[in-house]
Amino acid sequence: MLELRPNCECCDKDLPPEATDALICTFECTFCAGCVEQVLGGICPNCGGGFSARPIRPAAMLKKYPASAKRVLKAEGCGPRKAA
């Protein structure tokens, strides 16, 4: 089950469960569309993967399976992933 993280890991923008600009990678790293396009160049800085739109959980299911309240923010800052 997706966590539906509450914020962009880059700029800390709120991304509520119904946000249409929330993007996730396969590890559920969560970023806003603006940061993905303008800062990250479409590549996750954590895993190097791409992004997909985060699905919106129906309200009835959100009551039963609430979104995460734990905020994740990149302590070292946000920028394109560096090659190893």
User: What is the average of the pLDDT values?
Assistant: 92
Strand order of the largest sheet: 2-1-3
Q: Based on DSSP secondary structure assignment, what is the total number of beta strands?
A: 3
Q: How many helical stretches? A: 2
Protein architecture, described:
InterPro entries: DUF1272 (IPR010696). It comes from Mesorhizobium ciceri biovar biserrulae (strain HAMBI 2942 / LMG 23838 / WSM1271). This is Urease-associated protein. The chain has one domain: Herpes Virus-1 (2-Layer Sandwich). It has helices at residues 33-38, 59-64; strands at 22-24, 30-32, 52-53. The chain has a 3-stranded antiparallel beta sheet. The mean pLDDT is 92. By secondary structure, the protein is low in regular secondary structure.
Structural descriptors:
3-stranded antiparallel β-sheet, 2 helices, Herpes Virus-1, little secondary structure, 84 residues, globular
Compose a concise summary of this entry:
Helices cover 14% and strands 10% of the residues.
Give the arrangement of secondary structure elements:
Elements: E1 22-24, E2 30-32, H1 33-38, E3 52-53, H2 59-64
Antiparallel strand pairs: 1-2, 1-3
